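Q: I'm a student working through a structural biology exercise. My instructor gave each of us a protein and asked us to get a predicted structure, then write a short paragraph describing it. Mine is Intramembrane protease-like protein. I'm not confident about reading structure output yet, so if you can add a plain explanation after the tokens, that would really help. Here is the sequence I was given:
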Amino acid sequence: MADNSTVLDGALDTINATLNSTAPSSSGSAWETLRDLDFLLLEAKLVFSALGIIYVGSHAALRRPPSAAPAPSRKKLGKKGEHDDDDEEEEEEDEEPFAHQGLELSDAIMFPLMAGIILMGLYYLIQWLNDPSIISKILRWYMSTMSILSMLTLYSHGIDLVMSFVFPRYWRGRDGSLRKVDQKERVVRPCDDVGNSVEGEPASRSPLPSFVSVLAPSERTRRAAWDLRGVFTQEWLFRLYVHGMGEEKAKIRFSHMIALVASLGTAVVYSSTTSPFLSNVLGYGLCYGSFLMLSPTDLLIATLVLSGLFVYDIVMVFYTPYMVTVATTLDVPIKLTFQAAARRSILGLGDIVLPGILMAWALRLDLWLHYRRKIKYEATELKIIEKDAVSGAIVTRSETKHKEVKARYINAQGAWADRFWVRGCMLFGAKQLPAEVAASRFPKTYFHATVVGYSLGMAATLAMLLVFKRGQPALLYLVPGVLGSLYLTALARGEMKLVWGYTEDGSIDTKDVVVDLDSEGNAVKRLGKLKDGVVDTTKDEQKDKPEDKDKDGEKKSKDASKEVKRPDSKDGEGKKRKRGHKVFYISLETPPVAED
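A: Happy to help. First, here is the predicted structure for Intramembrane protease-like protein. I'll explain a few features afterward.
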């Protein structure tokens, strides 16, 4: 049997190609290859690994959509004091709808341009040095270092997912009744299908769900299980302050500490051994981190960026030697590599990240549409200030209008384990679920459409590889598959205007908006923002921005005044001295605990 090698590779994170190095010459070789079980398993592993990291990363990148109201801030625990300011800051952070780095229109030009410069630079550097091992070693250390943060996030989320299956928040007992964990009281209380505690029912003491509770038969093992659950569910507040640079805060868990050690070990071991398995792990981490950090912002920018890379990929694969040379010469973690017998299959990270960020955006689009359907409009008596069209004078009138009321956002992440224990592995099939569990169940029409489009694009790539026996640019098939499925779904559902208008730049994240409704109860016109029962239509957003800046300035001045009003100290001569300011500090704080 002839040696057959399939390569889908990427130079850095935007270069993709497919290469068949030793294709059989017989006309029936393609059919014989398809009949080869090793080939089918290898390519199936390739496709499902790409779809798997995209699926997981897209769900991890979910955030509060602009069509949902911010979730209520955590109640201030303990007495008012030093934590008051912290709570205010945390509340503002919780209201941030997106934590992504949005792409811009200029990226449609910059992405192909920078990718081409890097690709050609690597190609001529390989030709000049005539020793690609030096470049590979340098790039391995660089990529290993840069991927530590992404791997830390992937590892920590993976640990949290595993522990959520071991210690879920909800599960069903053997009698089919739903149970809810109370970590503070260390009991498991019976509850109804929506999560409300049922009085009079006996509570259990084991934090382990269903049949897994047999692993903690004694009081001692149950105590140890509760302690372990508390360690993995506890959050700490990490603070880093540098004078002149500001303060950074982050919530960390025990899983982050384990993941930090694991990610550092992975990077060091890979750099020393060049293991293909660890190279794949680094690749998964880079893809996962990209989904969390990058956003195409809106459909127009996504279309232009992917279209630019679509043309770039075709030119570099079909008309230049740069792509194939760099892809097959350097051994760096910019690809996923799978090998079986004499065959090797390689998928460039660009083939995953570039379509994947649009697929993650499509999932957030589905969540936005889900909460948009929940928006209600309540009649409100208000005063409207507007400019008379004839005289130009400012007039005030009273009128009943409708105010937009958004549903509160409930975190849609991390409910897989609860869904599994509540109904996934059982046959009870309750129609209602607790809000924390049901939040992750929303229509994912556009996301599923892009998954189908991506799968068809991968199938077309492999088919063209077998037919033409030469390198194929994967984006040639993936970009039309993903973009085409998204556009066709929007057109078929009559939602093209909504999909085109959805953006993650923050412009549609509004509150207290007054609207006009049509006969069917749909908003047709936004009149303005409601403030103290008054809607002033004479002000535009640009005039409001200086006021926001002034408010920010007032807040900073208040904070500064608090800092100045600290008790002054006195020296030996009785003269007052101003207290010094902080220069640098690192702290790890436990959250405040409510007093009984």
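A: Here are two points you could use in your paragraph. Confidence is low (pLDDT under 50) at residues 1-28, 75-98, 540-566. Residues 342 and 525 are 64 Å apart (CA to CA). It's a good idea to check both against the output above yourself.
Q: Great, thank you!
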